[in-house]
């Protein structure tokens, strides 16, 4: 394959510089591994080579083993695609060689990249380099000896932290912990690495085989204690995933039986993990996330992003303040507009509280907080709007209010200004009905809390210009969100797909199932919390605001009850006043409130949907299916109507917007592992018993009948131009 190669240059000083080249990140494709074996063998056999410097092209060392190979193995199950690297290349050829190797690291050394570097006898790095073993995020473990060498270089605790949390570090920290031997300016990296390698060869600097070291491991008793605590932590942070415990098993093997035994164990369990459903889901998400940045007719037509330096945010409630926070944190000036000084003051306080929260967590310094606040200006009128590049409207979900705001800002902002709304559900054509600037209007749908949630759903209409979409995608990346471009419809992609999820949970309660049990089943599946706890968290305002909108858009697919209305009538507003389905006390986890039962009974009595008036009896698995399959059914409609460019966009939207478990690959990917046929048959049966809410969509029916997966093919540019996109 063109562009994939390993080259070697031997200098008059007797140093062979071996360079990995596979842009953009020098991923370790099997051809690179083969190339490394070949060049190393040549270097060992040449009398004019005394030492080796291993480095990477295009300003990077390596982003690790080629993840495309993992994806191929997931499709074929063929493990023979995995080359023997950990023993054959890293131990036998590099580490145990008669000539020393020095890794010259620039840019990044991640996963297999860092593992190759740790097999070398020293590591020299430029200051900006990022070093880490993020393999657990792909459902596998560090596989080229990483589980053995990292603890031996940086100590057990730090190594476990870096692996379990997939946390990378910069060169400076690497040096402090002993992973890096020296930090040098990029322009001197190769020169100093050559000298270092020669000095090792001449025994003027230590020749260290990290796999044989034990000095950083501590005593066996200490190691066992650290591993015990780590296992408990892994259980907490990754309850449904195997790779965290397996990684600790491999580390433990090496601590007890020596590094080489650990390498062998690591290689064996790596192969088992590659075939796990967790790895399949996580690798799918890795590529799906990167695919979202490719939007036909937008990112492939040679557009250049315009500079967005000043943004006006209208409405400083929960969403507006979160949006403003995320903008100022990323160096974008914000004009904050409210209708009176009381609201404005409250909004400014919320932004300060957001920033203080980040400071408490250690992710923001006082200096950065001050810098962010200096970019913020509160206003009560539109006079400053003539200088802004973009407006984001974030007022309450009122059609008439939004329409009048858009009519105003169209007149007051520069003619090129982007006009965005943060509506979570209202059709954008309705929002922009009273303007003549539909080409500049689009949705910037953030998820709450907007300064923390990673998804930015960008909603385009048939009239939104590609330049405007491209600009907002660029802003999205600047503010460190993952932008997913979707078409215009009620609820857009995320809320539309997931409205039946809440409806189904609500329906189950009215069929007689305990709501706390539903929440337990859903969180055991891997959602951050169940649907009722989530409703408490967000408050019930949105429920009332969008109920009517959804009712008219999705007639026949709604289950309405009085449950939330009764809660509010009984003085329960959710987390905001400490009482909802749960009791919320500061500093402790929400507790199920048994006294909710009387309200539930009253709502059940009014809804009167239990067959024969008796509660239904269902297993936990049925609860799971009855809550998620209606969402899958709606996802099918979303794909059928071409609201998303590709099925995997919906996977990313569900993972980043709803907290759908990443390791299950997203809602469509997960549904395909369950099977369209099965989902269709269940929905059909429930539709017969419980009514039209469960009726399977024609897309699902067709896929089930033809035995096809639900994930559709990507849309061609022509299809895009004819679709809602
Ligand atoms: C046996 C071993 O222990 C197992 C392993 O090594 S598994 C691999 C471990 N490495 C990783 O997990 C790193 C994965 N990569 C990343 O985190 C990020 O891509 C990065 C930090 C390297 C670069 O980030 P960024 O600059 O934002 O660029 P990003 O868009 O993510 O990637 C650029 C391209 O490189 C590709 N890429 C990145 N890492 C890759 C890898 N390890 N294999 C294959 N492709 C890779 C991406 O898919 C993307 O391709 P595209 O342009 O066609 O979409």
UniProtKB/TrEMBL annotation:
Residue ranges of the 3-hydroxyacyl-CoA dehydrogenase NAD binding domain? Answer: 311-488
Q: Which domain of life is it from?
A: Eukaryota
Q: In which pathway does it act?
A: Lipid metabolism; fatty acid beta-oxidation
Question: What family is this?
Answer: Belongs to the enoyl-CoA hydratase/isomerase family.
Query: Per the record, GO CC terms?
Result: peroxisome
Q: How does it assemble?
A: Monomer.
Instruction: Give a yes or no for keyword Lipid metabolism in this entry.
Output: yes
An example of a GO molecular function for this protein is: (3S)-3-hydroxyacyl-CoA dehydrogenase (NAD+) activity
Question: Which UniProt keywords are present, listed alphabetically?
Answer: Fatty acid metabolism, Isomerase, Lipid metabolism, Lyase, Multifunctional enzyme, NAD, Oxidoreductase, Peroxisome
Q: Does the keyword Protein biosynthesis apply?
A: no
Q: Name one Pfam family in it.
A: ECH_1
Q: Which GO terms describe its biological process?
A: fatty acid beta-oxidation
Gene name tied to this protein: LOC103715010
Q: Where is it located?
A: Peroxisome
In its UniProt entry, what is this protein called?
Answer: Peroxisomal fatty acid beta-oxidation multifunctional protein-like
Q: Where is the 3-hydroxyacyl-CoA dehydrogenase C-terminal domain?
A: 491-582
The catalytic activity, as recorded, is:
(3S)-3-hydroxybutanoyl-CoA = (3R)-3-hydroxybutanoyl-CoA; a (3E)-enoyl-CoA = a 4-saturated (2E)-enoyl-CoA; a (3Z)-enoyl-CoA = a 4-saturated (2E)-enoyl-CoA; a 4-saturated-(3S)-3-hydroxyacyl-CoA = a (3E)-enoyl-CoA + H2O
């Amino acid at each position: 394959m063109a562009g994939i190669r390993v080259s070697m240059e031997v200098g008059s000083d007797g140093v062979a510089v071996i360079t990995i080249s596979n842009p953009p990140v020098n991923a370790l494709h099997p051809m690179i591994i083969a190339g490394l074996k070949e060049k190393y063998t040549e270097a060992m056999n040449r009398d004019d080579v005394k030492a080796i410097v291993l480095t990477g092209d295009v300003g990077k060392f390596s982003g690790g083993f080629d993840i495309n190979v993992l994806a191929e193995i997931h499709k074929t199950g063929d493990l023979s695609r995995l080359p023997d690297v950990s023993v054959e290349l890293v131990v036998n050829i590099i580490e145990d060689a008669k000539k020393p190797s020095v890794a010259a690291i620039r840019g990044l050394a991640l996963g297999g990249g860092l593992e190759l570097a740790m097999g070398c006898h020293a590591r020299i790095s430029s200051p900006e380099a990022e070093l880490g073993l993020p393999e657990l995020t792909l459902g596998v473990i560090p596989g080229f000896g990483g589980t053995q060498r990292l603890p031996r270089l940086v100590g057990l605790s730090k190594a476990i932290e870096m692996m379990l949390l997939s946390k990378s570090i910069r060169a400076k920290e690497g040096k402090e912990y002993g992973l890096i031997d020296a930090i040098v300016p990029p322009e001197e990296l190769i020169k100093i690495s050559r000298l270092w390698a020669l000095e090792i060869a001449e025994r003027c600097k230590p020749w260290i085989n990290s796999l044989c070291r034990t000095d950083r491991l501590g005593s066996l008793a200490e190691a066992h204690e650290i591993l015990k605590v780590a296992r408990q932590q892994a259980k907490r942070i990754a309850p449904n995933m195997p790779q965290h415990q397996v990684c600790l098993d491999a580390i433990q093997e090496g601590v007890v039986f020596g590094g080489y035994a650990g390498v062998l164990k690591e290689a064996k369990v790596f192969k088992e993990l590659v075939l796990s459903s967790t790895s399949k889901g996580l690798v799918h998400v890795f590529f799906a996330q990167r695919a979202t940045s490719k939007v036909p007719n937008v990112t492939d037509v040679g557009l250049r992003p315009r500079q967005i330096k000043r943004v006006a945010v209208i409405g400083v409630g929960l969403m507006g303040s979160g949006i403003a926070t995320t903008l100022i944190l990323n160096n974008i000036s914000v004009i904050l507009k409210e209708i009176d000084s009381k609201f404005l003051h409250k909004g400014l306080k919320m932004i300060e509280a957001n920033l203080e929260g980040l400071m408490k967590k250690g992710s923001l310094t006082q200096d950065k907080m001050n810098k962010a606040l200096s970019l913020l200006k509160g206003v009560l009128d539109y006079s400053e709007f003539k200088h802004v590049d973009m407006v984001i409207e974030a007022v309450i979900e009122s059609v008439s209010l939004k329409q009048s705001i858009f009519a105003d800002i169209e007149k007051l902002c520069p003619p090129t200004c982007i006009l965005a709304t943060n509506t979570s559900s209202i059709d954008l054509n309705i929002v922009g009905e009273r303007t003549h600037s539909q080409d500049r209007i689009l949705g910037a749908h953030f998820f709450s809390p907007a300064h923390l949630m990673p998804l930015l759903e960008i909603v385009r209409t048939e009239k939104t210009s590609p330049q405007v979409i491209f600009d907002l995608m660029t802003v999205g990346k600047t503010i460190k969100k993952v932008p997913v471009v979707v078409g215009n419809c009620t609820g857009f992609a995320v809320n539309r797909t997931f409205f039946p999820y809440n409806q189904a949970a609500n329906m189950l309660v009215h069929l007689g199932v305990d709501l706390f049990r539903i929440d337990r089943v859903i969180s055991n599946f891997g959602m951050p919390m169940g649907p009722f706890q989530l409703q408490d968290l967000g408050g019930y305002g949105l429920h009332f605001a969008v109920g009517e909108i959804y009712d008219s858009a999705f007639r026949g697919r709604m289950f309405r009850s009085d449950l939330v209305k009764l809660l509010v009538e009984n003085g329960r507003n959710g987390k905001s006043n400490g009482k909802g389905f749960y009791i919320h006390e500061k500093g402790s986890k929400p507790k199920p409130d048994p006294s909710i039962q009387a309200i539930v009974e009253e709502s059940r009595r009014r809804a009167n949907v239990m067959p024969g008036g008796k509660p239904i009896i269902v297993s936990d698995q049925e609860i799971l299916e009855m809550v998620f399959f209606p969402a899958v059914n709606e996802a099918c409609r979303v794909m059928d109507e071409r609201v998303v460019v590709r099925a995997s966009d919906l996977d990313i939207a569900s993972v980043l917007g709803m907290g759908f478990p990443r390791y299950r690959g997203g809602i469509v990917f997960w549904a395909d592992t369950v099977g369209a046929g099965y989902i269709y048959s269940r929905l059909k049966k429930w539709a017969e018993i419980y009514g039209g809410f469960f009726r399977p969509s024609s897309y699902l029916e067709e896929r089930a009948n033809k035995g096809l997966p639900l994930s559709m093919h990507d849309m061609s540019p022509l299809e895009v131009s004819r679709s809602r996109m």
